[in-house]
């Protein structure tokens, strides 16, 4: 959650009108940052791939063993600084103003690229390897700043869209940078072209960074611990204090493990199993990267402009299914060797491989974007950069583990398709493990799938629900899924008070229990359960939660709002908190309402994907709360449409 005090600390940048996803690119609070980070990712990959091509084909006197050594060493040298320096970088990002840090990092990039030019002119492999290590050292502090600055400049409803643009831009920059680096190095005078490119892009990145608005430090009094081991351990302790954040970090790290295996095996997979040349490798990498970009950009639309962690299980399902199908998509007969991209595309059977890679990328985007947004919203502002630093360390370690496991399994006799199949099955096991530890992910997926399959929801006035502190929301009661619709669209978790028989409905019961709903019965049915429910409501409000109540006490049988019962008055007397009136429109007659008999309702819904509305009004202060007043306000919000 983006707290009010954090918004106030941004020097007014948050006061701008909220932007659409692509409108953010034109906003000063996002556009310059986006250009800066995209150019940085692009430049890294121009140089890295140019260096690999230079070592592999351009430097005389290197034996095949030396080439393999330097190529693998290059990958390790770029990742190593993330392990060594991320913990310190996280502290620096908390202590100092972030836009100035970004500009300092970009100035350092210019210096490093000038050293890269010297290394290219000298043709010294050890020197260039040292430059690559410095590039990793320069990139390591950018990660904690990159993800912790977004909540300071974006509204909470823009975080998913902002993260989606960052992920899409990063993967496309990696793709284009990799392609350009190889193409430039293949030209006559390739080292000069690469030298000019990396310096110019670094300068452009610095110029773009000058437009990033100020982002004040979140922990200016922090004492920096320069010991990376103790600070790394402290970062992990921060993450352990919030189980959901910890598992989100592990989920992100697993994604990089999964992606590292797939991308590292792509060249040999193309050559040995598909019979393609380097143009086919580029084609497959392009399709996968475009998939990540598409999936990332879809997140904002599918999530309804909020952090929807229900997309994470959907993403993991797709990663598993299409990862498995990639194994079965391998041609049964040995392919011809040296196929160009055009020849590869002519074979209809190869289209299945392309679709699998595209859909794997799309579901990967759906998986990763909500997890980054979840960390940003669920972590405390004063620790956010350090948690992201810990995430970067784990990402690096998981990528190293991916390389080691791939080596071991391939040496054990597995083919590359079999290796990819094993990793896809491991993804399913990891997903089940994470969702069993934090059922909230699976619960949100079920809610998201249900309400987005059956309904199109128009939301109005949800900004009236306070961003923090206790509150009660009251709403008319039309269907068995009212609580799911409200809970799936309100930014904050809501603890609903619901009739115990609805609470016990199979499948929905898992969702209600995971959301910590409070079952209640009438005084004549079960007075002990009723008293227990009121006690739980009081405890929840005391803890600062939002409690949801349907004061009619039962589903409407005729589509009209029934008289509100006085239980809400008892709640507010015990816990004087604001009450937000809400109304549902258009649900009467839907599959889950009581308009028809049970047998008629057992048919398919008459209004599949029907349009409904959720409307919220201004909160009532506790001294003005009465059942009659709330009923009148809910009636006014609902209007004539049941």
From TrEMBL:
Q: Is Transport set as a keyword in this record?
A: yes
Coarse class of the protein's main subcellular location: membrane
* Pfam families on file: Acyltransferase, MFS_1
Protein's UniProt name? MFS transporter
Domain called Phospholipid/glycerol acyltransferase: residue spans: 471-587
Which residue windows are transmembrane per the record? 46-63, 69-89, 110-135, 168-187, 244-267, 279-299, 311-330, 353-375, 387-410, 416-438
Q: Which PANTHER family match?
A: MACROLIDE-EFFLUX PROTEIN, MAJOR FACILITATOR SUPERFAMILY (MFS) PROFILE DOMAIN-CONTAINING PROTEIN
Its annotated compartments are: Cell membrane
Q: Which organism is it from?
A: Sinimarinibacterium thermocellulolyticum
Q: How does it sit in the membrane?
A: Multi-pass membrane protein
User: Which keywords, in A-to-Z order, does the entry hold?
Assistant: Cell membrane, Membrane, Transmembrane, Transmembrane helix, Transport
Entry-linked Gene3D superfamilies = MFS general substrate transporter like domains
Superkingdom of origin: Bacteria
Q: Which InterPro entries match?
A: MFS, MFS_trans_sf, Plipid/glycerol_acylTrfase
